Amino acid sequence: MHEAWLPREHPLHRPRHGRRQLVALICALAFFSAPLSSWLFGARPEQLENRPLAEFPSITEGFGFFTGLNGWATDHLPFRKGAVQAVNGISRGVFGEPAPLAGGSHSSPVGAGQVDAKPPIDESVFPPVIEGKDGWLYLGHDVSYRCVPSRSTEEVIAGLRAWRKAVESSGRKFQLVIAPDKSTVYPEHLPESYPGEDCSAAEREAFWREVPKATGAIDLRAPLRQTAERNGRPIYHDIDTHWTHEGGATMVYQLAERLSPGITGTWKMAPSRQYPHSADIPDLLGQDRTVPIQAYSLAPDGGADNTQFKPSDFHQPLHLKSSPKPGMITEPVRMVGDSFTQFASPYLAATYADIAITHPDNVATNAQATATFLAEGETITFELSERFVAGGRYPLLDPAAAAEVGGVLAAHPVR
């Protein structure tokens, strides 16, 4: 018998408190049905960070189903952007300082979605955004990933060497380029002090001293600065973590010269269209801000423009083909690249007759399909972001990943 049905004089009698229970039930129903109600009336979750919204976790993940719910619920919360804007506005207006907004420990704005275990970032210590001088904004993971790495520098080097060995053992050429962090190329705009300054600075110096030399990676720091000096403007956006199209084109030039020295001698670049681009770092502060994008034409033979502008995040591989012309790389090339390559893909399309690009995530989530994809190329190029490499946060840095893909490449060698 329910305790509310007992006689009032019974010592176990407990009233239902009907009115208060009813109010509580109504509040609970409103709270839990708000997302569905908002969805029915047209509200949709907004992507605040430069990555796809977290997918609903699979029941096959075991306990990971429950731990994954938090990231999914956070990403799919309606009006999340408005809430972030309100919190940031109140903090700045009342307290005169930015709000300690969490950027999401399950991922980051650039190249996120990796699937291996990583040490969590304490966002009470390392903020998701570092506000620098002259209005410059830096991604907090430039610092936190160095200070809380998933792998040691030795393990990172071993993983990258494993990829070179796997590719070259199959008769293919291997190119590795690391896109420097904005904080590496433009440290002068960082604030006078910030959390993690000492550990990140020391790790950055050690990284560039050791990793390119040990792995054969192309060091883009000097070419990027030279391009910026020649054009008279920064090669990274002040409020976005990425380089400009000029940075992407610089990478394309460097890669082509190493494949075929002198081939860029006939290339002709010229400014083409301009368009606004939604900056990724302000999104973490709940702000809608854009940066102006200057795109370019590129004629490998010095004649007609041969660029192709096909937006892609490379989670679905992007295949770019065109008729061979003088000044083009004609052998098939397969590339692993992240969001930095998005600013280079029009110029890769202009200068490679057959190039296809896939995201680093795909190497970990579907190794066999990625192996088959890479086996189509005679040259395999990796573009990886400094913060993810330095922090050891790419799953593909596990030598086992290179060994699995390398087995497929070995079975389909290039003679």
Summed over residues and divided by their number, the pLDDT gives a mean of 86
Radius of gyration: 25 Å
SSE-based structural type = alpha/beta
**Which series of helices and strands comes N to C?**
HHHEEHHEHHEHHEHEEEHHEHHEHH
Mass-distribution shape: elongated
| Biggest pleated-sheet summary | 6 strands, mixed
- State the total count of DSSP E strands: 10
Distance between the termini: 82 Å
User: Percent of residues in helical segments?
Assistant: 40-55%
Low-pLDDT ranges:
102-115
Placed side by side, the strands forming the largest sheet appear as: 4-3-10-8-9-7
What multimeric state do the chains show? single chain
Total number of helical segments?
A: 16
User: Beta-strand percentage?
Assistant: 5-15%
Tally of structural domains: 2
Transmembrane segments: 21-41
Protein name: AlgX/AlgJ SGNH hydrolase-like domain-containing protein
Organism: Saccharopolyspora terrae
Domain AlgX/AlgJ SGNH hydrolase-like: 129-262
